[in-house]
Each structure stands twice: as structure tokens, then as C-alpha cells.
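User: For my dataset I need records formatted as: sequence, then C-alpha cells, nothing else. Please produce one.
Assistant:
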Amino acid sequence: MDQKTNKNLSSIMVIFGGTGDLTRRKLMPALYNLVYDDLLPEHFAIVSVGRRDIDRKEYIDSVYKALKEFSRNEILDEHWARLKECIYYYQLEFNDKDRYKDLKVFLDELDKEKHTGGNRAYYLAVAPDYFQTIVKGLDSSGLSKKEGSSWNRLIIEKPFGKDLKTARELNNSLLDVYTEEDIYRIDHYLGKEMIQNIMILRFTNPVFTALWSNKYIDNIQITIAEDKGIGTRGNYYEESGALRDMVQNHILQTLSLVAMEAPVSLTMDAIRNEKQKVIQAIEKFTPEKLRDNVVFGQYDKGLIKGEPVIAYREEENVDPKSNIETFVALKMHINNFRWYGTPFYVRTGKRLGVNQAEIVVQFKALPNILYFEQTSQEPNLLVIRIQPKVGMRMYFNTKDFQTHNDIISMPMETSYESPTQGNTPEAYERLIYDMLRGDATLFSRWDEVESAWILAEPIIKYRESKEQNFPNYHAGSMGPLKAFELLANDGRKWWNI
């Protein structure tokens, strides 16, 4: 991020769902840290809209408590005072159409007071059921209209629909009010530092640019593993499952950055065009490929960090006979010249043995001659760590200096947690800052979302039509046995680095 405050970002950010968990844990800490880094404009206001009947002081006190718990930076009085003066609370029932007109009066008056130039950002940090309701309220009250040269943007969290049909219906309803360029569909994974670094890694280092194809790469693995269960999200997860929650968005967006061609420029549309081409090129799942290349799982009780945890079917608001997956593993192929024949293995799940997200690029082995006749060597690996430890690790074969002839695999590592790299910004900080600047590069365009649903649709139907033998993996493991067989059948293995 640029460390100089951009004075042209003057605006009011309206957060629907101002008392919700997302606002408390992510949005308010992100806004505080933007103040900390001197990246919010001088003329700025935050209006949290919620259904709870509380006053401004009570709300601000709750924000302060949240910052103390979740901010990556220390809460300093001078920065808190700056953020505090920006925060307002407005009580509104989302279904009350008439109250949106009152909200407009409030925002118009605040706009004059804060000199924000009529610029508005409406962030829907609410359940998806309220998306269309709120947008209709913004439209009917005139809140969605631009005044003169001002801008007016809509920010939406996933899930963007439950399937292809509902996603298209939702998108059409949004386009009745907003243009595509004013709709910002957040995928917070795209805001993570190492996800952004993938393009720099690929397109500024000749050593990787030259090797980044099926000629030199044996396979690529993407793992997003969580040791946590579903917590209080039982109602949501019973409708979603791991496939909708993680694969259709986070994983496909990550894969598209790993596999995309170099864009013609660094403009947002040029980058998004290349990502879209990758998603469209992924080989469609036929009935045979669904049977052989897709694995579903659901966690049983087990141990996480030595502590016993319950099974998914015992979680709050979960059907005791639930057939929803908490784990998915897929083998995919991208049918273009660069990647034809190179498998992409992806997996994601809850209650796994580690809490991490990483990309492993396995390079092809050399011919079985010279040193390879004497001893077996591990392949060269490039490990891109997304979280919690952010950085890269490259594995080379080298002499074992403890012996005369042995060859060992040794890592060369860089980490963004080192003191020289500073305190890495959280994803929401980058995304909010980009949205205020009008840069949608790290947000999902509609055609990307639509293509992802087209790809996911047959997988979802396959899972819904097939009775699963759940639960099929213990909490604390790395998923069901079939997920390991998926690679073993190809003579490969998952890398746990």
C-alpha cells in the first residue's frame, strides 16, 4: 500500500450489519489499521447500520473492545481518537422500506458536515437473504444514485448465490440498480499478501517464468486446511458445505492466479480477463470424472491439539443425519497449451490436523541417471504459504555435509513475518482501500463468478444425488482415506510441508 493518505477518497462508508461478527472481527479492525497507516482520507465517515436499538456511545464502546481483541496493531489513543470521530450508528430494520428515506436524510446531512462530496460505499455485511432487500431499499430511497461527479459503490460478501440459477437471479437484480463497475464482490482471499504476490513471483522472475508450464511442472497442489469446526455457523453450513463455502470461490480464484497467462497490462480488466480464461479452460466434470476425481468428507469426533472435539453431526443447528460435506478434494485439468496434462489437486476441510493455506508446485524429476542411480531424491518444490505463516520456501537437492555421498532436500525460505518485512496488512485492509480508490482488480467480476458456478454445478448435483458414507474422517486427521488415494492412484502424494 501507498503510505501517503489519498485525499481524493473522501466518502461515507455505510456498513449494513454493523453489529455483526464480520464488522466486529474484520471491518472495524481493518479501518483502524488504515488510520494507523495514514491511509484513510481526511474527510471520511463510517455509518454502521444495525437492527439493535443502541446509541452511538454504546456502539463506539463495543467497537473499541473489538479493536483491542482483533486489531493487528496496538490501539494508540491518537489513532483511536481519529477513528472514533468517524463512527456513527443508525438503527434500521432492513425490511422497513420507509426507513431508508430517513437514512438518506441522515447521510445527506452527514455528507455536508464531513465534506465527503456525495461519495458512498454500501457494504452488505449481512446474511445473503438481505442482499436484494437492502439494494431495493437503496434504490427506492435514492441512496443508490450518483450526484454529479460523485461515486456510489456496492460491496457484497460471499456467498454470491447458492447455485448458478440463484447467482444469476441475484446478479440481475443488482444490475437493475448498479452497473457492473460499481459492484464489488469480495473474496477476501484475494486480499491476502501472498495471493497478490503470486503474479509478482511469476512475472518478475525469469527462473519461474521459464519453468511455469507442463514442460517442467509435474503437478500443483492447493490446500486450505482449518483445524476449527463450524462453530455457531451450523445453519449456514447446512446450506453451503465446503464446496460452496470454499471451492467455488477461494480455491478457484487462487487457482486462476497460479495458472493464468501474463496479462497485457496491470489494469484490472486485463488481469481479470486472464483469470476468467483459466476458469473457462478447466475440464468439465463428466459422470466418470466425478466418480474418479472428486472426494467428499465429513468430520467425526477426534482430537485437535490434544483436546477432544465433537463430530459435525453433533454440532449446534446440524441435522444428526446430515449429508453435508466438510471436506472436498478434487483433481482438475486445465485444457490449454500451457497446462495440458498437468493435474491440479485441491483440498479444503474443517477440523483437519493443521490450520494453514498453501500452494505446492512440484517440478518434474530428472532422468534416472548420474546421482539418481545412487540414491533417490525428492523433487524440487516451491511452497507458497498463504497463512498463517506468510512467505515462500524452495526445496533444492544438495549434498549432505554430514555424510560423504548422501543427497538431501534443503529449503531456502523467505518469510513476511520477519522484522524486516514489517507487520503484514490484513486482507480486508487492502480490499477496503482498493474499493475506496475504485480499483476492482482483487474483486470478482461477474463472468468469473458465473464460470465458477458453471464448473461447480455438476459437482454439487453429484454430491446431492449420492448418499455419502459419513462421517469418514476423524477430527485432527488430514481428511478421508480416499483423498490420499486420489493422488496415490497417480503415483503422487500430498505434500505436508
